[in-house]
Amino acid sequence: MSTENEGTAVPPAPSAPPVRVDSPAASPHPAAPDDGGPHTPAPAAPYGASDPEHAPGPHGAFDPHGAPEAPAAPPSAPSYAPHQAGDAPGSQAPDASWPPPPPPPSLPSYGGGDGSGGGWGGSGGGWGSSYQPPAPKPRGRGGLVAAILVAALVAGGLGGGLGYTLARNNDETSSTTVAASDTGGSVKRDPGTVAGVAAKALPSTVTIEAASTNGEGGTGTGFVFDKQGHIVTNNHVVADAVDGGRLSATFPDGKKYQARVVGHAQGYDVAVIKLVDAPSDLVPLPLGDSDKVAVGDSTIAIGAPFGLSNTVTTGIISAKNRPVASSDGSAGSKSSYMSALQTDASINPGNSGGPLLDAQGNVIGINSAIQSTSNGGFGTGQAGSIGLGFAIPVNQAKFVAQQLIKTGKPVYAKIGASVSLEETTSGAKITEQGVSGSAPVEAGGPAAAAGLKPGDVITKLDDRVIDSGPTLIGEIWTHKPGDKVTVTYERGGKQHTTDLTLGSKTGDE
Question: For the region Disordered, what residue ranges are annotated (predicted)?
Fold first, then answer.
């Protein structure tokens, strides 16, 4: 199986590929939506069920009022173990012909157990019953402690009596009125807090509703890219509206605008839409530098999970450069490839296209996919968050968005060779035969100029380890056409290196 080498990403595991995370149009009580595209791919839809809160209270604690011990804590809700990602996408890279879409995974239903348990209760003396200290013993440490306790109680009673007397006497000589504040005081949240970041970013995010001419569609998220009304989102969020469908964007203040698709890139899974009659007071979200993000950095995700618009969740960067190949599983859909930012911030269907922010409120990624659980035992509904979310690095998304605004067409970096998309751990192998009978190494292309041949196995791109064809494609697509890279490859059991200047390919065809 082969693919034109542009860059790929190996999905998390062979069982259930990550899924994109858009959701169908919201309803008052949205059922597990049909993903259609934070979709059902390698960036995909995590799961999450919260345990019920257990009743506090240690056993055997001394109760000075004779209160009984609290019953055992209620049983906790069942927890589900995450499943590994699915197989690598197709067998051919998007540069020539797209690989056939992987079979859509069977998605788990979104739900959780309802736990019940005993509450606080019991019979016997309750709080407030009188306490009679034992009579002091004439000898021993116990008697001394009891005597001290009695003295303390007397002193406490005396102090309380004196306090009341002084207050009463004071009231007789002067009158003081104390009024409680009816405003609750002002609350100030620093810009660096999650609340501060959310307050600043929410007005620049939108909930996107897309529908095809036959009414099929779903809900996703986007964010303001510039003052001209351009909104950046995922390709799979707006795919249904590309050919004459309906598209709208709603801001948190309830203002809704019709929109049109400016351009979309299936391979990158990035799209740009533009608001019709855009307001003049748009505030673009600031873009960060995804290359400088570190594992452990705080993250904030904004989106419309399951149609719940303007939802804010938090987490950290769990990993960088995570190879991800994703597809929405629909007939004829093409896989997208990315070297993703992985986050444990809760991301669900409907978060697709929304911003992943750093602690300062800068966009560092576009939430695109989540890992789903296995298809065993949970039904066939849409998967939910299991803490494995994937975002397109903003440095890559920014370049793609600029190209789409400029020309309406995506531009992909390429090496000009077909590589196998079979899941391996040894590297990306240049196939013996190209796509649709074409040459495996494009004549006069970048790979040929660098001396690469069919059968060579690429193991590194610069300092990035390459373990498969999808990983190579995803890594290549983090670069721009014209970038120079160093390729490490194996031929005849020996390791070689060569410098290569990336070429370009326009469009998704």
Answer: 1-139
- Is the distance from CB of 499 to CB of 452 less than 8 angstroms? no
Domain 411-506 has CATH 2.30.42.10: yes
Burial of 49: CB neighbours in 10 Å, binned 0-12, 13-18, 19+: middle
pTM of the shown model? 0.66
Number of H helices, E strands in the chain: 6, 22
Q: What is d(CA 17, CA 105) in angstroms, rounded to the nearest whole number?
A: 7
At residue 290, what are phi and psi to the nearest 5 degrees?
A: -70, -20
Q: Which residues are catalytic?
A: 236, 269, 352
Tokens of 338: 């990315």
Domains in the chain: boundaries: 411-506
- Summarize pLDDT for 276-288 with one digit per residue, the tens: 999 999 999 999 9
Place of tokens 């903003």: 394
Q: How far apart are CA 68 and CA 205, in angstroms?
A: 53
**What are the strands, taking DSSP E only, across 6-151?**
19-20
Q: Distance between CA atoms of 35 and 43, rounded to whole angstroms?
A: 12
Decide if pLDDT at 461 tops 90.
yes
- Alpha helices in 375-427, H assignment, sequence order: 394-407
- Comparing C-alpha atoms, which of 483, 505, 507 is closest to residue 4? 505
**DSSP secondary structure code for residue 386 in this structure:** S
Output helix, strand, coil percentages for the chain, rounded to the nearest 5.
Answer: 15, 25, 55
Close Cβ partners of 64 (under 8 Å, ≥ 6 residues apart): 131
Q: Is the pLDDT of residue 76 over 90?
A: no
Q: Which amino acid is at 496?
A: H
DSSP bridge pairs for 302: 312
296, 306 in Cβ contact below 8 A?
no
What percentage of the chain has pLDDT greater than the value 90?
51
Check: CB of residue 11 under 8 Å from CB of residue 18.
yes
C-alpha dist (Å) from residue 180 to 29, 58, 175, 177, 249: 41, 37, 17, 10, 44
Q: In the prediction, which pLDDT does 438 show?
A: 87
